[in-house]
């Protein structure tokens, strides 16, 4: 009988290489928000995958980028800190990269210091030809001795099975750390905040998204008169400028209503219950420098 294996792994890469899309493909559930905007992921999210002979705990990290605020520094620090106590690392790069840029070089330098088992995951293979892919693999192999190289298309769910095989090869024998029914360590409140932020990221203009964060201030379950379960959820979208507040609310509240509608639809699917969602918008100019808020984005 095959021994049960378990272990922890980090997903690391530059912003916008598809780490969150990959995580959702691996888990088969939505645990990380994914948009085309850079720096979408702010928390180190743990996701749990239970397979026949293994349990794999993935940590999705914020994308490595050049920080412009205290928040940016904390996000980079969180990503690199996740390399410490783990069994393997998935280093995700884009298939259409022509060269190994500064961001990937910075990560490779940290990987060399970490002395961990690293799998190179080349994402978005649907965007390039095989010959270009082979050239890129050669360039990365010349710089680092990867345990495996796995080309994938996370958005098309291609290459995921092959990736699981390579991961399981690196796992030590061990017990299941989490219940078989669990697929994330995020609370319902955190998932709700992230879904609302995802809808805002997708709908708002480019200059607004990185200046916002969402905080759920009330989350209470009750029964309607028809004895149907419903969550009353109140959340505040914080932004840095009054001009941003106007954009988020929109004409006659139209944008905020749209964000709320899309978020509610996703949340109802996710939680399998009705949601009564109320959203507010407040200005908090220096939240990206506020230690109390930044604590939320640090790896615990």
Describe this structure in words.
The chain is an alpha/beta fold. The chain has two domains: 5-170, Rossmann fold (3-Layer(aba) Sandwich), CATH 3.40.50.300; 188-297, GMP Synthetase, Chain A, domain 3 (2-Layer Sandwich). The chain has nine helices and nine strands. It has helices at residues 19-27, 70-81, 102-114, 130-143, 160-170, 188-203, 242-249, 254-271, 291-294; strands at residues 5-13, 45-51, 54-60, 88-94, 117-123, 148-151, 213-223, 229-239, 274-283. A hairpin with a 5-residue loop joins strand 7 and strand 8 (229-239). Residues 35-43 have low confidence and may be disordered.
Kindly report the oligomeric state of this protein. Answer: single chain
Instruction: Round the Cα radius of gyration to an integer and report it.
Output: 20 Å
Number of domains: 2
CATH topology of the largest domain: Rossmann fold
Total of DSSP H or I helical runs spanning 4+ residues: 9
Total E-strand runs: 9
What would you call the structural class? alpha/beta
CATH superfamily of the largest domain: P-loop containing nucleotide triphosphate hydrolases
Low-confidence stretches: 35-43
The geometry reads as globular
Give the helix proportion (percent range): 25-40%
């Amino acid at each position: 009988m095959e021994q049960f294996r378990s272990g922890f792994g980090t997903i690391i890469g530059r912003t916008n290489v598809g780490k969150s899309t990959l995580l959702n493909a691996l888990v088969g559930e939505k645990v990380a928000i994914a948009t085309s905007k850079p720096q979408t992921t702010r928390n180190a999210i743990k996701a749990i995958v239970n397979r026949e002979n293994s349990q794999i705990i993935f940590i999705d990290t914020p994308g490595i980028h050049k920080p412009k605020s205290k928040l940016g520094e904390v996000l980079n620090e969180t990503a690199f800190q996740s390399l410490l106590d783990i069994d393997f690392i998935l280093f995700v790069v884009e298939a259409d990269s022509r060269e190994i840029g500064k961001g990937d070089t910075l990560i490779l330098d940290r990987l060399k210091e970490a002395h961990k088992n690293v799998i190179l995951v080349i994402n978005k293979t649907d965007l390039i030809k095989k010959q270009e892919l082979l050239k890129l693999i050669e360039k990365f192999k010349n710089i680092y001795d990867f345990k495996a190289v796995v080309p994938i298309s996370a958005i098309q769910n291609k290459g995921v099975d092959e990736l699981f095989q390579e991961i399981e090869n690196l796992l030590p024998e061990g017990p299941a750390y989490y219940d078989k029914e669990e697929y994330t360590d995020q609370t319902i409140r955190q998932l709700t905040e992230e879904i609302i932020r995802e809808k805002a990221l997708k709908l708002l203009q480019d200059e607004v998204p990185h200046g916002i964060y969402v905080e759920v201030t009330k989350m209470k379950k009750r029964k309607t008169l028809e004895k149907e379960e419903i969550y009353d959820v109140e959340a505040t979208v914080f932004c840095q400028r009054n001009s941003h507040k106007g954009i988020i609310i929109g004409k006659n509240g139209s944008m905020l209503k749209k964000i709320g509608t899309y978020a509610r639809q996703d949340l109802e699917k996710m939680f399998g219950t009705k949601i009564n969602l109320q959203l507010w918008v407040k200005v908090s100019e220096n939240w990206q420098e506020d230690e109390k808020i930044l604590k939320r984005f640090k790896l615990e």
